[in-house]
Amino acid sequence: MEAQVQGLLETEPLQGRDEDAVASADFSSMLSEEEKEELKAELVQLEDEITTLRQVLSAKERHLVEIKQKLGMNLMNELKQNFSKSWHDMQTTTAYKKTHETLSHAGQKATAAFSNVGTAISKKFGDMRRK
């Protein structure tokens, strides 16, 4: 696919080869020694923070599992609870209520119609027996 160029800016997103070119470019010559040291320190700090966050997350996930075990919660119970909640949420929507009301009304009409047909057939059989 050919990128459209308007002035110096490309309007197309970077392609794989473009990302490789950017990744392999050496921008360090554009930075002063002080900026390089600041960036290296920031990099180390960010890596440490990420490691700490991963450890905290892992500990919290283990604690979560322990609490669920103590409460007797397992995957099947969670699925049941999620399904029940989703079913309840769906039943409280306006669309569900309107559909339920319409189908209920249609069912009542169909029941009345079948009852009338049944009555008419019974009457016809009664008339035929009397003749």
UniProtKB/TrEMBL annotation:
Transmembrane segments: none
Region (Disordered): 1-30
One Gene Ontology CC term in the entry: cytoplasm
InterPro entries in UniProt: TPD52
Keyword vocabulary terms for this entry: Coiled coil
UniProt key word Coiled coil: yes
Membership in a protein family: Belongs to the TPD52 family.
Name of the protein in its database record: TPD52 like 1
Phylogenetic classification of the source organism: Eukaryota, Metazoa, Chordata, Craniata, Vertebrata
